[in-house]
Every structure is written in structure tokens, then in C-alpha cells.
Design a protein that fits this description.
The complex is a heterodimer of chains A (337) and B (100). With 337 residues, chain A is an alpha+beta fold. In chain A, 31% of the residues lie in helices and 32% in strands. Chain A folds into two domains: 146 residues, Transferase(Phosphotransferase), domain 1, CATH 1.10.510.10; 159 residues, 6 Propeller (Neuraminidase), CATH 2.120.10. With 100 residues, chain B is mainly beta. The chains are: A alpha+beta (337), B mainly beta (100). At the A-B interface, strand 1, strand 2, strand 6, strand 13 and strand 14 of A face strand 1, strand 2, strand 6 and strand 7 of B.
Chain lengths: 337, 100
């Protein structure tokens, strides 16, 4: 991950060159360029710290390779390698100079020492030639992959980007990304807030004690589960355009809007904090029907729609002999009536 | 009451879940009922038509994560999921699937 990616900025091909620099560094030194015991420490290292000099970790490296790696790992992308072609040219030049002995001469020890150990010098040169050749090959392949192929990018590994910065005594209680991914609705002790992900600009939407959030599919309204002490939770609609929240349904929580935007699933029939049924209704709160019910010894918690809107997935909980059991189940939505 | 039911996973401390467009159900799984700080994400691929498991995998994350509520990112309608929301309490983080 590049510094600009860690900051959540818009990315371009120079991000990939930074990642390539990370690979070069590890190939050359055997150690990761940026490390830490937690993601936060790794992020801090990427954003603020320079990696240990590669030559210090591997004295056999030519200084020119260190310069190339440093250039690829520049935190400011404007002074980083600007293109894969530029990086490839640097690596090819290193390989050529190593072939001709120019770089090797720069890193060799005094002649007397070299003469005493000719085999070591030879091995070093072979090593430099090998790594430079391999890197040029890898970069050529990377270049082809990044700039020639226009196919969809394949995704492989999860990385994380922090979106909020609440103190530990005021944690985020609920959150949901807008359908277009531009806004984060989240709730803490101060109520429901709306944050523009790109800039972190935030505005307060409503003073509700929110425990769950979902967006309507048009991205203009939010479904909030909120409760007052001693009362069962209720579903509220909150417009991102302003205005007072509107109570949609009492004794209802953990709502989820169907993929086609026409239905809302929710938990209901609360006894204390436990929901004993799952319901569907239209997005305006009408035509509610129960589709699943659990006995008093069981209760439902999580709830979500399948991507085709035909099924729901939920967690059914029970306790027996002091031992909790949970099952993740799915059901079609034809139950009840 | 209820339609065609299928049981996917049985675990003592299941948390929130999302059903992604590629068929995976991603769920939170705590080590203990009261300890949300020791939570990871599990995933299982489920056929959305039949509700049957097509493949099982475990812990796409290797650190403390949990889903909270509608933890699905905006790209759930695309074949490849680019992000979903996770939280390492008390913060919200967006998990981005990134090419390496």
C-alpha cells in the first residue's frame, strides 16, 4: 500500500510503482520495507518512516540499486518514479553497467583483497546480474499487466482504511456506507452523523440513540434502529437532505433493504433485548408480514438479504445449560402470509 | 412459519453478517460472548437460490475485525467485491480488496 492509498486519496499508476519498490526492497534485503505488529504501526511506517538503507542490510548491493529502490519508495509521488518505463530503464541501465563491470568496480573491495578472494567477487557480480535481470523481467511483466492489458483488475488481499477517529469512551455504535460509497452514516453518543468519505466533512443528522443503520437504495434516506431506555427499539427514517426523523415502525430493529429496493426485512417481537421473529414490509412501512418465528428460548440477531433478494440470512441464538449456541441460517422469503 | 430453511454455520459467538454479490456470506466470529475485541471474520460461499453451501473458507482477515450492521460496501452489486466495512472498535474501517 502506498502512502497516498493509506491516506485514502485517488490513486494512479504511481501507487503500483511504490508497491513494486516494496517488492524490490524485500528481494534485495530479505526484509519487508515497512513493518509493525499492528496495521496502525505499518500505516505509520508507510506514511512517515524511511526504510532502513538496503545497503546496510545487504552490503553486497550496488549503490545504484539502492538509489532505484529509494526512488520507487518515495512517499511523495511527484518525486517518485513517474512510470514503469522509467523504472525499467533504470534497472536495465544497472544490469548493463553490471555486465560491463562499471557497477561491480564501484562496490568491489580494494584490489589486494579482491585478488585474495576472487571467487567471492565473482559470486557477487553474478548475484547482482541475477537480481537485476530478474527485476527487469518482473518489471516488464508488471508493465504489461498494468499498462497493456485493459482487463479488469483482480483483487486478492484485504487492506484497511480508517474512516472514523472516535475516542475509546465514545465508540462508533453503528455504521453504513451509502449505495454509491461516497458517504458514511455512523452513530455515536452524539447521535447520527453523515460523513463524506473523501474529505471527512461531517454533519449531524439526528439526535437518536442508534444501534443499527441501513441505507435506502436511492441513497437519500437512512433506516435507523433507535430505542429509548425501557422501550423496545423502533425503526426511523432519516433524510440526508434534512428534516425531522420519522418513525416507520415500533418494535422493530436491524432493518435491511432488499437489493431491488422494494422491501425491508427487520427483527421484531422483542422480549427485553431479544427479537423472536423476522418480518418483511414495504419501504414505506406498509404490508408487514412475519416470515419466521422463534420460541421464547431462541432469538434472532443479525439479518441480511441474499444478492438476488430471494433469501435472507440471519443468526438464530439459543442458550441451554448456560451455554450459548448460534447458527447462521438462510431461509427463502415466502414464509408467513 | 418460515420457508425453506438451511443451516450454514454453527458457532457459539456469531456476530453480524453480510451476503455479498459473489455469493459469500461474511460473518463476525468472536472468541467469547463478551469479548468483542477478539473477533475475526469468517466466510462461507452460499448459493443464493438454494441456500446451500458451495464452499467454506475461514478468516479472510488475520487481525481483530468485526462486521457491524450493514457492513457491506457499495460495490456489492459488482461481481468482484472491492470493499466491505469492518470495525476494530471503536473505529470504522473500510476493508479494500487490493491487488498485490
Amino acid at each position: 500500500m502506498s502512502p497516498e492509498q493509506a491516506r485514502g486519496e485517488e490513486l494512479d499508476a504511481r501507487t503500483d510503482l511504490f508497491s513494486f519498490g516494496v517488492v524490490l526492497y524485500e528481494m534485495a534485503t530479505g526484509r519487508p520495507a515497512f513493518s509493525g505488529s499492528t496495521s496502525a504501526l505499518i500505516f505509520d511506517s508507510i506514511l512517515h518512516k524511511a526504510p532502513t538503507s538496503p545497503v546496510r542490510l545487504n552490503p553486497d548491493l550496488p549503490p545504484e540499486l539502492e538509489r532505484i529502490i529509494d526512488k520507487a519508495l518515495e512517499k511523495d509521488r511527484d518525486v517518485r518514479c513517474q512510470s514503469a518505463a522509467e523504472l525499467r530503464a533504470d534497472l536495465k541501465r544497472l544490469k548493463r553497467d553490471t555486465d560491463s563491470g562499471r557497477v561491480a568496480a564501484a562496490v568491489l573491495r580494494p584490489r589486494a583483497l579482491e585478488q585474495a578472494a576472487p571467487s567471492a567477487s565473482s559470486r557477487r557480480k553474478q548475484w547482482i546480474l541475477g537480481i537485476a535481470g530478474a527485476l527487469v523481467t518482473i518489471l516488464a511483466a508488471t508493465t504489461i499487466g498494468l499498462f497493456v492489458s485493459r482487463g479488469p483488475r483482480r483483487t486478492k488481499e484485504m487492506v484497511q482504511q480508517r474512516l472514523t477517529a472516535n475516542p475509546s469512551d465514545d465508540p462508533v455504535l453503528a455504521q453504513a456506507l451509502s449505495p454509491d460509497g461516497k458517504y458514511l452514516a455512523f452513530a455515536d453518543q452524539s447521535g447520527l452523523r453523515l460523513r463524506l468519505v473523501k474529505t471527512a466533512e461531517t454533519q449531524r443528522l439526528a439526535q437518536l440513540e442508534v444501534s443499527a443503520l441501513a441505507w435506502f437504495s436511492d441513497g437519500t434516506k437512512i433506516l435507523a434502529t433507535a430505542a429509548e431506555p425501557g422501550h423496545p427499539p423502533a425503526l426511523w427514517t432519516v433524510s440526508v437532505l434534512g428534516g425531522a426523523p420519522r418513525e416507520l415502525r415500533r418494535d422493530a430493529a436491524h432493518a435491511s433493504v432488499s437489493p431491488d429496493g422494494s422491501l425491508v426485512s427487520f427483527l421484531s417481537d422483542f422480549t427485553e433485548d431479544a427479537a423472536h421473529s423476522i418480518w418483511l414490509m414495504s419501504v414505506n412501512g406498509e404490508d408487514a408480514r412475519k416470515i419466521l418465528a422463534a420460541p421464547q428460548t431462541e432469538w434472532f440477531t443479525a439479518l441480511t438479504w441474499s444478492p438476488n433478494g430471494r433469501r435472507i440470512a440471519y443468526v438464530r441464538n439459543s442458550v441451554a445449560g448456560g451455554k450459548y449456541t448460534g447458527t447462521l441460517e438462510t431461509s427463502d422469503t415466502n414464509g408467513g402470509g | 412459519m418460515g420457508g425453506d430453511r438451511t443451516i450454514i454455520v454453527s458457532e457459539p459467538n456469531l456476530g453480524d453478517l453480510v451476503w455479498l454479490a459473489d455469493g459469500r456470506i461474511v460473518y463476525s466470529l468472536s472468541e467469547s460472548w463478551l469479548n468483542y475485541s477478539d473477533t475475526n471474520l469468517g466466510q462461507v460461499a452460499v448459493d443464493p437460490k438454494t441456500g446451500t453451501v458451495s464452499s467454506t473458507d475461514y478468516v479472510p482477515t488475520s487481525r481483530r475485525n468485526r462486521l457491524q450492521g450493514q457492513g457491506k460496501g457499495p460495490n456489492d452489486t459488482r461481481p468482484i467485491i472491492d470493499d466491505l466495512l469492518v470495525t476494530g472498535l471503536p473505529q470504522i474501517e473500510r476493508g479494500l480488496k487490493e491487488e498485490r
